[in-house]
Structure formats: structure tokens, C-alpha cells
Specification:
This protein is α+β, with helices and mostly antiparallel strands. Helix content is 47%, strand content 12%. The chain contains 17 helices and 13 strands. Bound molecules: zinc ion.
């Protein structure tokens, strides 16, 4: 459930927000491309931009969705294939689908990183590379420390740390199998975005009755897991989707450079670069409490795909608060992606 349910919405989609038609695009690809575009704008003309172009042959905006395009790779009895669904073409993946060796590179990455997950997570096929996209810090304990409830040796924070190690010239640390700097950069352009999506980092755990819990054991984590909001039923979709979607206006403004000046004002993160993912996860988890504090949860229902906890929120204030926080997080993610690259290659 956890891995499968983290499949992000694809393509440009229109959603109903707060009872009014409000065009939105998904954090994947819209939010990720917005983050990549801001970083592209900030490093333009620098040695970091030249290195990005050399490694990727494209920009961060285009590369930012690569880790989600990898979800199209399927395995059947040892045969691995990149599968294009003609009914659900993903425009953002066209670049990698069409460039020479593009599909093979995606298949190769997934095959190397597809083993089952450990711990409380279900041993789903390809679980590991899908687990790279999130961590599940209980909102009661937002300070990230590996080994604490909700963390895992292959979670989002460890993933970004592993990518930084490879980009700094080191080897890919276990359990990761990252091929080299180009692959690490493609992944980094995505995962710094995920690290700033509140529901990819902070989690609410619920009892059957819909009461908030503070899980302490692996069994409690499993029993009360809301799967990053995928198991919270909210306004005709799930809460994770609601937070993945960004306003189309935000997306267009990010690509047009409207957030560049604001991104330049994002405060530098103190400490060594290797400590940044932990600091950013702790900050995002703190901010994630905003996503849950005004929600009212009902007892869990079991009805196929609609299994989960129904939730409601005050209108229109909840949607407005979400849009404000999404904007802040996208700007920070873009600024920080640029900061990493400017620090590595100057
Ligand atoms: Zn992701």
C-alpha cells in the first residue's frame, strides 16, 4: 500500500479546490519542474550550470521528473521494460522516452535499486526505489534522526545524503546503487523537491477511531500509518494528492522566473553540506504540522480503494494555507538545490 500509493498524479490536471474551479498541476511533475526551474535560474551562467549541462545534456527542470518516470518500469519474470501507457501518456517523460538510451537508463536504474524494503514496510516489488521518495516522521517528533520512528535506511533523507556523496566524488553507499554523477544529479533534482513536500516528510498516525497517535514501535507505525496522506480521504481524492497539486499560476510563475528574487533571499543552511538533508527534513516535518492541525478525522472506513480515514477542513482557509506553504517550500527547494550545486561546482 505504502509504496504503491505513493504513485504521484501525472499530467496536467484540473481539480476543484475549496469549491471553486482552480487549475492545478501536480507536485510531480509540476512542483518538481518548478523547483528545477528556479534552481536553473539561480545557477545560470555559473560553473554549476555548465556542469549540469555537461552531465545531463539538459537542464534541472527537465531532469527533475526522471525519478518519477522510473515508476513506469515494470518487471515480469526477470524481464525489465519501460512501459508506455498510451491512455496515460506522461508528457514530462517524453524527453527520456525519446532520447537515445533514455528508456534503457531508466530500466537500468530501477533494476539496480528495486529490491524489497526492510522493516515495517511491505516487501512490495520495486519497493526500495519507491521508498527513496519519502520518510514518515511523526509530527510530534519533527527532528530527523535515523533510527527514530518513521525513518529508514533507504528513506528520502538517506537518499539525498547518498546522492551528495556520489556527486562529491565518492562511491554509492549501501543500500543504494547509483551509477555515477549524471544519474545522481538527475535523482537529486527530484529528491530535493520531495524533501520540501510536507507530506513526503511529516506524517500523522491515526487510531481506528481517527485519533492522533504517537507511534513508538514498528507494529504501531504499521498499524496507524496513513501512507503520507494517501490513506486520508479528502474532498473526493486523498490528502497526498491535494498536497502534490500546485496551482497552475504558481507553476507558470516559477518557470517564468517570477520567484527568482525571492529564492535568492532564502537563508543559507549552516554546517557541512552532508548535514543539510537532515536539517531540511526536520524543518519540513515541522511545517507539515500545518497540513494536519485543522483537519477533523473520522473513524477508518474499509471500501476498496476508498479505504482510509475521511477528513474535512475549514473552507477556504485550509486551501489558502496550503497554497501559501507550497509556494514557500517550492522556493526553498529551488534555492537549496542551486546552493548544493554551487557549493559542489564553483
Ligand atoms: Zn518523488
Amino acid at each position: 500500500m505504502h509504496c504503491l500509493s505513493r504513485i504521484l498524479m501525472t499530467g496536467v490536471t484540473t481539480m476543484l479546490l475549496a469549491g471553486a474551479a482552480a487549475p492545478a498541476v501536480a507536485w510531480g511533475p509540476g512542483g518538481h519542474q518548478a523547483v528545477g526551474a528556479i534552481a536553473d535560474q539561480l545557477i545560470a551562467g555559473t560553473p554549476a550550470a555548465r556542469k549540469v549541462r555537461l552531465l545531463l545534456g539538459t537542464n534541472l527542470q527537465t531532469a527533475s521528473v526522471w525519478a518519477d518516470c522510473a515508476r513506469a518500469v515494470q518487471s515480469d519474470q526477470g524481464v525489465w521494460t519501460y512501459v508506455i501507457d498510451p491512455k496515460n501518456r506522461r508528457a514530462e517523460c517524453a524527453y527520456d522516452e525519446n532520447r537515445p538510451g533514455g528508456q534503457a537508463a531508466l530500466v537500468d536504474y530501477v533494476r539496480r535499486n528495486a529490491s524489497s524494503c526492510a522493516g515495517a514496510r511491505p516487501p512490495t516489488s520495486q519497493c526500495r526505489h519507491k521508498a527513496y521518495h519519502f520518510t514518515d516522521l511523526p509530527i510530534q517528533h519533527p527532528a530527523y534522526a535515523l533510527g527514530q520512528p518513521g525513518t529508514a535506511p533507504d528513506d528520502l533523507v538517506q537518499t539525498v545524503g547518498a546522492l551528495l556523496a556520489v556527486l562529491a566524488g565518492g562511491k554509492s553507499p549501501a543500500p543504494y546503487d547509483i551509477k555515477g554523477q549524471a544519474e545522481a544529479l538527475r535523482l537529486l533534482a527530484h529528491f530535493v523537491g520531495d524533501l520540501h513536500q510536507p507530506l513526503h516528510v511529516g506524517a500523522v498516525y491515526l487510531s481506528e477511531a481517527g485519533e492522533r497517535l504517537d507511534p513508538a514501535t514498528p507494529q504501531e507505525l504499521k498499524d496507524h500509518d496513513t501512507s503520507g496522506g494517501n490513506a486520508i480521504l479528502f474532498e473526493g481524492r486523498n490528502l497526498h494528492e491535494a498536497w502534490d497539486g500546485i496551482l497552475e499560476s504558481q507553476y507558470r510563475q516559477a518557470l517564468a522566473g517570477d520567484f527568482k528574487a525571492e529564492a535568492r533571499q532564502v537563508a543559507a543552511t549552516p554546517g557541512a553540506i552532508a548535514s543539510w538533508p537532515t536539517a531540511w527534513a526536520s524543518e519540513t516535518a515541522s511545517r507539515a504540522s500545518l497540513a494536519f492541525q485543522d483537519l477533523k478525522f473520522s473513524p477508518k472506513v474499509r471500501a476498496g480503494f476508498d479505504t482510509g480515514w475521511p477528513a474535512s477542513a475549514p473552507k477556504p482557509t485550509y486551501a489558502q494555507a496550503r497554497e501559501t506553504l507550497q509556494h514557500e517550500q517550492i522556493v526553498k527547494a529551488g534555492a537549496r538545490l542551486a546552493k548544493i550545486l554551487g557549493t559542489l561546482w564553483h
